[in-house]
Write a structure and sequence with these properties.
CATH class of the domain at 16-123: Alpha Beta
Largest sheet: 4 strands, antiparallel
Number of strands: 4
Distance between the termini: 60 Å
Oligomer: single chain
Structural class: alpha+beta
CATH superfamily of the domain at 16-123: Pseudouridine synthase I, catalytic domain, N-terminal subdomain
Helix content: 10-25%
Strand content: 15-25%
């Protein structure tokens, strides 16, 4: 009778978790979420970082963005989780990645994830607006807006 041992018995399952905080500014704000995934896959390859692949039927690079940023939006604090097959110091990962990132993307920090990405319960945004109204008029309009029982936003 044939050996019933699974084909993937020799796969390397050890992985080391990392969380990178990066900024996406300038022309890079027009990189879509899918293209951002592809861009970071190229960054890992060019930086010669041993990225961990999923172990399923169709293995793929393990990169996860807990909060996808809308197209056309700048951000200085975006989060990306990934895993490597080797334990490389955080500062070395940061330097190797920054040497390969395209213009507008910059890795700000790399660390061990302290919390699961599902533990994120809030986000803080800064909105800037240009108007010909006075500061007092804007403050009054804002107070009226915040006092509404329901704020509906149409997503396009």
């Amino acid at each position: 009778m044939a050996n019933a041992e699974p084909k993937n018995v020799n796969l390397r399952l050890e992985r080391f978790e990392y969380r990178a905080v990066f900024s996406k500014t300038g022309r890079a704000k027009y990189i879509s979420h899918l293209d951002l995934m592809r861009a970071f896959q190229r960054v890992f390859k060019r930086a010669h970082l041993p990225i961990w692949h999923t172990q399923g039927f169709n293995p793929h690079v393990y990169i996860m963005f807990p909060l996808a940023l809308p197209l056309g939006t700048d951000s200085r604090v975006e989060i990306m989780d990934f895993a490597l097959t080797e334990d490389i110091p955080y500062n070395e990962v940061l330097e190797r990645m920054n040497a390969q990132t395209p213009v507008g993307l910059e890795i700000v920090s790399v660390s061990k994830p302290e919390h699961k990405h599902t533990d994120i319960t809030a986000a803080e945004y800064v909105a800037r607006l240009k108007t010909d109204k006075s500061v007092h008029e804007v403050a009054e309009l804002f107070d009226k807006f915040i006092a509404l029982d329901k704020i509906e936003i149409e997503k396009r």
